[in-house]
Each structure stands twice: as structure tokens, then as C-alpha cells.
Amino acid sequence: MAVDVLTETVIDRPCAVVAAFAADPANATAWYANIESVEWRTAPPVRAGSAMDFVARFLGRRLAYTYEVVELVPGERLVMRTAQGPFPMETTYTWEPVDPARTRMTLRNRGEPAGFGRMAAPVMAAAMRRANTKDLARLKRLLEA
Prior knowledge:
The chain has one domain (3-144): START domain (Alpha-D-Glucose-1,6-Bisphosphate, Chain A, domain 4), CATH 3.30.530.20. It is 28% helix and 43% strand. It is built from 4 helices and 7 strands. A 7-stranded antiparallel sheet has the order 1-7-6-5-4-3-2, covered by helices on one side. The radius of gyration is 15 Å and the shape is globular. The model has no long low-confidence stretch (mean pLDDT 91).
């Protein structure tokens, strides 16, 4: 069973500001509660082909994985993928102006769990939805402060 979780929020900041902050891996630990560290494998800034090593905690497990940026449309869309571990995943951020001062940001995680993860996919999806909702709320608080 595939996991496909889409969450969104409206942030009271211009699209360029939200996109620049959220797309910068150096900021990931500030707004993602479960991400412990991010290290560049390629030189910044973010662009198609960039690679970063992430360490996270999810459902009580430590996860280490490398994301590769597969698409970047500055200020509009960022797509990253990892093929590592028991849960290869694609993460997509989109930013859309609601008006000049507000931005709708979506966060989508999708993947195909393998092994035991396949059976636990509904639980994983629910946990991801909760985590993503909290992370977007944290991002909103940071950027609106």
C-alpha cells in the first residue's frame, strides 16, 4: 500500500519569503520537529541535483537518509527523493500566493513502504499527517513572528 500524505497551511508572509526559508535545508531543523540534522553532500545553494544527508526520528526510530533534489522551480515548487531504507519517499513543497502578503504552502510525502512497513502503511500515513500538520504550524509561527 502506498502512502500519500498532503498537508497545507496559509502563512501570512509573501510567497518569496516562505519559499526561500522552507526550501533552505539549513532551516529544516528549525521547523521540522523530527529532523535532528542536515548536512550538505553537494555545495549550497539548493538546485536540481543537490544532495543532503538527513537524520530524523520517526515513530521512535532513528532514520538516516540522503535526499536528492529532483526539481526546483524557485518560489513555486521543490521536489526531493530518497531511495534509501525501508521507506523510499518523495517530498514535495509547493508555494502559491493567496495575495501579495500571504502564501499557501503544501507539503506532500509519498512513497511505497517495503517489508513490515507495507503492513504498517496506514499507521505511518496517520503519523506523517500529524507530524506534517505540526511542522507546518511551526513554520507558520516562525515566519509570522
